[in-house]
Amino acid sequence: MAHAYTPGLKVTARTVVKKQRRLPLPGETLVEKGSKVKGDDIVARTALPGNVQTVNVAGLLGVPPEDVPGVMKKEAGDSVAKDEVMALSKGMFGLFKSEVKAPVAGTVENVSSITGQVILREPPEPVQVDAYIEGTVSEVIPREGVVVETEASFVQGIFGVGGEVRGIIRMIVDSPDTVVTSAQIPDDCKGQVLIGGSLVKYDAIERAVKLGAKAIVVGGIEDATLRSFLGYDIGVAITGSEKKGLTVVATEGFGQMRMAQRTFDLLKSLTGKMASVNGATQIRAGVIRPEVIVPSDTKLGEMKQSTAEGGLALGMPVRIIRQPNFGKIGKVTSLPVELQTIETEAKARVLEVELEDGTRVSMPRANVEIIES
Fold this sequence. Notes:
By secondary structure, the chain is mainly β. The protein has helices at residues 57-61, 68-71, 202-211, 223-230, 261-269; strands spanning 8-22, 28-29, 36-37, 42-48, 52-56, 79-80, 85-88, 99-101, 106-111, 117-121, 125-130, 135-141, 145-156, 159-161, 165-171, 179-180, 192-195, 199-200, 215-221, 247-254, 274-278, 291-295, 317-320, 329-334, 340-341, 347-348, 350-355, 360-364, 368-372. The protein has a 16-stranded mixed beta sheet that branches. The chain is elongated.
C-alpha cells in the first residue's frame, strides 16, 4: 500500500554517519581508504586561482599598444612583487623615463600588443578540507575528496546559523525549560559546545562569542535575536556561511520552545565528549538540517536500520509540526486506514499520537515528522 511522504528528524544515540568531504574544484586527496582520521585532519587540498588585475600600460606610459611588449621589464609567466617596476618607457634622449609598478604581487599572465594592457594574476588561494568528524575514510574520490564514516550519536535540529565547528559538549542548564541568558554562560566556555534549554537570549549569544564558545544548542530562538546577532533578516537561502564567531542550533523551532526531553537527555549523556556541529540549514528542495555529531567510543558492529525507512508505524516517535500542538513529541498509537474528515472538511489519512503527558490527539499524517532513532 502506498503511503504519504513523512519528513524525518533524526535524534539517536547510535547510528552510522557518513560525511562527504569534497573540494570546490579538482585538487589532491591526502588520505587513503581505510585511514583513521580526526575531525581536524586535512583530507584534501587544492588552490583557487587568484584574482585578475588589468593594468593599462599603454595609457600609463603614453605609448602605442604595439610598443608595450618592448617597454616591459617582465614577460608572460614572470612573477612580480607588489610595487615592482614591470614596465619602463624609453624616454627622450634617455631622460624623462616613466615607469609602471605592479599594483599587486602575482604573475604576468598576458601582455597584449593590441590593447596595450597587461594582465596580472594574483597568487592562488590555498583551500583545505578537513574530515569534520572523527572516523574512517570509507571512500576516496580521486582529486575531489573523501567520504568519512563513523558510528556516532546524532542529533538534527530545525534551524541553525553558522558553519562547521568542533568543541567539547557542556551542559549549562539543568532543565530543558530553562531560558539561557548571559548569566548561564560560564567564564571558561572557550572551545565548548554549550547545551541550553528552551530559548537563548541575545545577551547570552554576545557573551558566548566574546568568551570563545564554539556553539550553542537550544530548543528555540526568536527572530529578533537572530536579527540582532546577524545584522539582517534571514531569507530563504541556505544558512551556514555566516562568520559571526558562533554556531547556533535550534532543535525545536522559533520562539521559546522546550527542548524535547529525549534530545536533552541524549546531549546531557554526551557531556565532556568532542562534538562536530554544523548550523547549515535549507528548508527548500534538498533539505539540509543543522546537526550535532558525537563519535562513539565503542563499536557496535552491524547497526540497526533506521526506523523511518518503511514510513510510519505503531510506536514510532514523532514530532508534531502544526498547531495547536506544534513542537510536541509523542508516539504513534493508531494508524487508521480509512480516510477521515478533518477540520477543513477535507478527507485525509490520519494518525493518533500519544503525547509525553499521556494525552492522545488525532491529526492528518502530514502534520507530523518522524523522529528517527
